[in-house]
Queue: 4 jobs
Job 1
Amino acid sequence: MRQPIPKRPPDGLNLAKLMAQAGLLGSKVGRRYSMRPHSIRKFFRTQMAALGVQTDYIEYMMGHIISTYHDIQMEGIEFLRGVYAASGLCIKPKTKPSRIEMLKEMVRALGLNPEEILTKEALTMPHRTVIMAGRDESQIETLLKALKHKLKQELAETPMPTPKTV
């Protein structure tokens, strides 16, 4: 049976040098840097486990030979790519949408155009000066009014079901 061969960078390509060029090494602690190439492997393993990927799959992806190695290998590379993609692993932190962005999405979901609503509101009150600090609150208030109005309109149009008697 053919044994897996660990992946190594091509000649002349040193991972530590790449990390230094990318500014990932940080400060030196004694003879070593605070972040080492092995830190990337630890990050991968920890994040995949936190995202709910089975330990056997993680071990296989890291190149470890485990008792279920051949079973996982039989699944095929596309299956493992699917597991990796489904995990949603990302190096960049996921940004949380702001309150105004979430409200705009809800308004869009009801078939309204939030930008149009905000523009109309701004044009109806040209005398009002909006200070940047209160701008978001003003926009949130305007979008909430439009959202409430649309929901009331849809509820009024929807016929109420009549109770069935047995």
Note: The two ends are 71 Å apart (CA to CA).
Job 2
Amino acid sequence: MPKLRELRLYANRMTGSIPTEIVYATKLESLRLETNFFAGTLVTEIGAVSSLTDLNIGFNDFIRTIPTEIGNLRKLKSLRVSQNAFSGRLPSEIGRMDSLEVLAMTDNLMYGSIPSYYGLLWNLRDFRIAGSGVGGFLPTELALLSNLERLDLANSNFQGTLMTEMGRLTNLFKLSLNDCQFNGPLPTELGYLWNMTRLQMKNNAFTGSVPRQYGRLDELEQFTLEGNKLTGEVPLEVCDLLKEKLNQFVVDCYNKRSGIGFDCEPHCCTLCRDVS
């Protein structure tokens, strides 16, 4: 099928694997196989289909590593491989795919860290890698993704202090860091993320207080901080966001024994979690 431009077989309960003959689909632009029962490995020949702009194989049973040849798809704008059983490390070659706008890799069995080369994905708007098995320290090169609007790292093995460079990602409107191993203080620089609507940071090991600079986030609708080691008082500037668009602000209730948590209901936070 050398003239085929789109192949959409999603949600059809199909089985089998991607044939190596995919290499002959030289004009294929969109391959949509999500929500089926395809299995086996992602064939290396996929990297020869250089015309692809949209590849979605999410919600299947693909296994083993994502082939490094995937980096040859320089026209690809959307790569979705979530909800499979991919293992191994993230291919650093993905950093060559400078047309990429969406990269969704959630819920796999991978390990290692995010390659610093991913900072070269200038056009990336949506990066989701929650529950993928990837972790470690975040590369500072992520701060180069100036067009990023959504970053989902939740339920992963990420650790260390949250880099102050995150404050440069001023187009972000959703940042999810729930259920990781981040520690240290909350960066005041996050107060520069003017477009933020959902800031999810629960169940980490953040310490210190809530920066008053977060009171600048006038678009914020959801702010979750419970399950950390934060102390002090919630700044009035942050409390005042409840008069704007903030309708969910969850923290830990103050615990006299540990000194952790906040006494802020009902005029500041919308809910405090009992940690006694």
Note: The longest helix spans residues 236-239.
Job 3
Amino acid sequence: MSEEQGTQAQPVERQEARLYVPDSLAATLPAMVRHSLAKLPAERQAEFVELYRKRAKSTSVGYLLWFIAWHYAYVGKWGVQFLFWFTLGGLLVWWLVDAFRIPGLVRQYNEDVAVSLMRDLAIMAQAG
């Protein structure tokens, strides 16, 4: 029997990863963010939730702005917004197609916000 087989791995104590955010919010977050968030203490998770709720966008507001052709600006895509205006919403074809794309645009924006906030919290944790 070699030495490697004879030694047993010692258990490493780990803090139990637990998610303290509401289930409705957790369901909308990317898996990587949920996993990283679960490793943080409850106070940091509460800080994340507060910041996320301030920065996240709403699909219903996205539809209101779609109606007046401001929906790309709402999700921070100013270049696409100007192109949309310049082409008159793709002669309204682009505008009609966007009626089905609004939930995805808002979801992608909110996922980007979550990843960005998680990155910022990780940097703050390393610095502090």
Note: The CA atoms of residues 36 and 118 lie 8 Å apart.
Job 4
Amino acid sequence: MTTHSLSGRQAQAGKYLQPSPALAEYVRRYEYFEADADHRVVQPVAVSVFPVLLFYLATRATAFEYTVRRARLVPPAIALGPCDRRVADVRYLGRLMNFVVVFEPTGFSRLFHLSPGELRNYAHDGRDVLGAWIRDLHSRLCEATRPEQMAEAVDEALLRKSSNALPKSPMQRAAASLLRYKARSNLASLASSLGLSDSSWRRHFISEIGVTPKRYLRMLRFQHAVALKRASPDRTWTEVCLDTGYYDQAHLIADFHDIGGATPSRFMRELAVVPDAIASAIYQSLADDYEVAFTGHSTNQAPQMLRSATRRGVRVPAGGL
């Protein structure tokens, strides 16, 4: 794993790992990152389209949560559904070692028989939501010495759950289409292609993915706007608008205020001081996915996902994304 020095103060590194092939329809990827975080740095948690399980393996973080308007020390393992607005400002307390399970849009509900909508916009204690096995898994992750060992431990736990997973539904194909084509998707046409009425489409989408299709598309557009601007700071906001489906800059600014709680420029300044390994895990892969979908190639050095059974580690270079 490559370690980089940032401003002489923060050493950080990240790694993406691919789950077992048997889990590919449920789990998008695993992420491991570590960083020496300045306690003065605050990370805006504004939007996430994927349900996640996040395990703190060293120091934890405090979060000021806008829903309850107070700060708390987050649990050692959190379950978080889709976030469609700025839900928290997170402050890291020291050395970070985090392992994240990023689920496919319908993967969480299929594995755990629980709608991500019930976890929307709030970091729940994973033990309360999913049971005591989360505590055991957290212990195994803390004992592991390499990210690959952590991935194997999570594989074992989730493979046991997959034996009782719900079958695939049309929402899985719908979510895959929305992720691929982003703001260029036509929701009515997509619903029609699935043979669903508008009301049935909305009901199933909310149950299995956690938000309405329209809101999901808006979250994707915002997340891609941030990802593209972060990956290419010289790209103008006008170019970002055109590339991500906003009507104009006024439309983009309105979304940043509503979802990010700040102007576009201010939000990017807030994000710029977040340890790069953390910010990259949220935004970089989406930027690359976007470029591939619309141009046929990536304009950036994309972190390569693992495809071998041996799980060779793939480095995410800090500052190079």
Note: Residues 276-295 form the longest helix (20 residues).
